[in-house]
Amino acid sequence: MASQYDVIVVGSGPGGYVAAIRASQLGMKTAVIERESLGGICLNWGCIPTKALLKSAQVFEYIKHSADYGITISGESQADFGAVIKRSRGVADSMSKGVQFLMKKNKIDVINGVGKVKPGKKIDVTAADGKVTEYEAKHIIIATGGRARQLPAAPFDGVKIIEYRKAMSLEKRPDSMLVIGSGAIGVEFAYVYASMGTKVTIVEFLPSVVPVEDEDISKELAKQYKKMGIDIYTKSEVTKVDTSGKGCKIVVKTPDGEKTFEADVVLSAAGVVANIENIGLEEVGITVDRGKIVTDDYYRTNVEGYYAIGDVTKGQALAHVASAEGIICVEKIAGLPHVEPLNYNNIPGCTYCTPEIASVGYTEKAAREAGYELKVGKFPFTASGKAKAAGTPEGFVKVIFDAKYGEFLGAHFIGNNVTEMIAEVVAARKLETTAEEILKSVHPHPTMSESIKDATEAAYGEAIHL
């Protein structure tokens, strides 16, 4: 007879393991199925190890510019690329072990293998040795995550055309790299490698880098990257990559005509696709639309007892989104009262390049297209005492309010450590805070966060520090 559970979660990424822990907290017998390492892509190959790489790059930048802070370092500083990669992998391993601890603490069974859902609320799990074991659950949550999108013109070979996982584990730093795509993954790796001495070129199909961000943010990042020596080609498309020689010859269609580039390595960072193949969706009859599993606001699929969260669904492919979805899904399963659907227009987005980017809510363009009359304020970090003292005056805070009611429509930051500031705006929007309340909230000085109040003052013609 198959092992029976209240909840089985397929996948242990930030959606899956969080859902499993919440289910256990609510008294349900829970198991997680994982084919690789606990923590999924985020902990092992995404969010966490990339931040370790970015911190190493940032430290190296500080060392190179130590004289700006009155500190002299004798001799030439060098980045030990192998040691940087090793540190990153160590951080990831540590975090994965942390999830192992959480599974034991919450009495969650970890089932190693590849899961495939079946009709009748059953799952087959194929272990590494090929043995297949069947499990049953009252509720099955699919949280199998996503993987790098592969472009026809640049198929991965793991050596010269790589995706983010390989970019985190290269044995040697390439002298040159062409990055396809300028979303968070593309610009973060561009910064890491450029900081350590690699000549980086970015090719973006859309009109601006970090294209989901506010236009002012995109322009500022492009300006800062060009200062670093990163070449950027927007409205451009890679049409062919020839890897037959020592490196890569890349043909790019640009607004100025076709150009050919040479690089040691091509990093394809052109988005993410959901891992929904060969997991039994067709056999169960679960509806899929445009590569995503269709769910309602509580992540229930069209088949009773089957749910889906994270990158396999329509929401933003972000770790914190998957975690929030997992909690909502499980709390609804448990029958908790007043479970509130997720507001996807109040999800913070963070990009951890230097300068960092953080945003939430409407961009200025989207707010105008939605019919709002706006009050928009900007506060440059060149006027921030904390930013100037830190030697990082690049960037700004931009806030967007509805002119009629003062509703906080959106905020867009670019600068040092701004990813630690955005939560204030998320909470303010959740609480339906108005501009007036931001203006009357005393912010500490000197901090980067007081720039939110300064930008709000600018929006309402009350700027003190501009």
From TrEMBL:
Residues annotated as binding NAD(+): 181-188, 204, 271
Subcellular location: Cytoplasm
Residue span(s) of domain Pyridine nucleotide-disulphide oxidoreductase dimerisation: 347-455
UniProt family annotation: Belongs to the class-I pyridine nucleotide-disulfide oxidoreductase family.
Cofactor requirements of the protein: FAD
Cystine pairings recorded for this chain: 42-47
Active-site positions on this chain: 445 (proton acceptor)
Domain FAD/NAD(P)-binding: 5-326
Record note on cofactor: Binds 1 FAD per subunit.
Protein known as: Dihydrolipoyl dehydrogenase
GO molecular function, one term: dihydrolipoyl dehydrogenase (NADH) activity
Broad EC category: oxidoreductase
Reactions mediated catalytically: N(6)-[(R)-dihydrolipoyl]-L-lysyl-[protein] + NAD(+) = N(6)-[(R)-lipoyl]-L-lysyl-[protein] + NADH + H(+)
EC number(s) from the headed UniProt entry: 1.8.1.4
CC terms in the record's Gene Ontology section: cytoplasm
Keyword annotations from UniProtKB, A to Z: Cytoplasm, Disulfide bond, FAD, Flavoprotein, NAD, Nucleotide-binding, Oxidoreductase, Redox-active center
Miscellaneous notes: The active site is a redox-active disulfide bond.
